[in-house]
Amino acid sequence: MKKEMLVKFDDPESIKECIKVLVGGGHLLGADLRDADLTGAMLSGAYLTGANLRGAKLTSADLTGAMLIHADLKDTMIMRANLSRADLNRARLMDANLSDADLRGADLRRADLTGAKLTGANLRDASFYGADLGDVNFGHADLTGAKLQRANLEGANLYGANLKGAYLHATDLEDADLKSVYLRRAKISTRQLVSELFIVE
């Protein structure tokens, strides 16, 4: 049942009710879950389009295939969470911590991840087309086959990241840290000329 929820889930009981609705296949469009503690929550396939999750704790949560289009996830703690195949199109993830998260095949087209932390994250085949990835920390992340066309990676830290087979056409890499990046078979046609590339064989 599709239902727009404008109430704020700000206590343990209401959060339990929220999870119950989501697990039951309900839609919580525009739900207010600011600062909610959803650590380890089982939210596979949840519909949270336009939800406000600012400052929420989603560490180790299962959000496989979740719908988070236009969701506000600024300053969220999403470490070690499973977001594989999640739809985060145009989501706001500024300064979010997604270290060691699983985002394989996730849709992050035109999402704003400015200043986010994605160290050690699994980003295989994820789509970042047109996304704002300025100052993102991708240290040692796995970006194999990731689609980064027209994305802004200005000032991003890609130290030790695996970009094997990644798509980087018209990607802005100005001032990005590309030391020890693995770029074998990557499709590169950037707007900027990169002066230093350290490609690990």
What does this structure look like?
It contains 1 helix and 4 strands; from the N terminus they run βαβββ. Helices cover 6% and strands 6% of the residues. It is elongated. Helix 1 links the parallel strand 1 and strand 2 (27-29). Strands 1-2 form a two-stranded parallel ribbon. With 201 residues, it is mostly loops.
Outline the secondary-structure elements:
Elements: E1 2-4, H1 12-23, E2 27-29, E3 167-169, E4 187-189
Q: Concise description?
A:
The chain has one helix at residues 12-23; strands spanning 2-4, 27-29, 167-169, 187-189. It has 201 residues and is low in regular secondary structure.
Q: In percent terms, what proportion of residues is strand? A: 5-15%
Total strand count, please? 4
Strand order of the largest sheet: 1-2
The gyration radius over C-alpha positions equals: 17 Å
Features:
single chain, 201 residues, little secondary structure, two-stranded parallel sheet, 1 helix, elongated
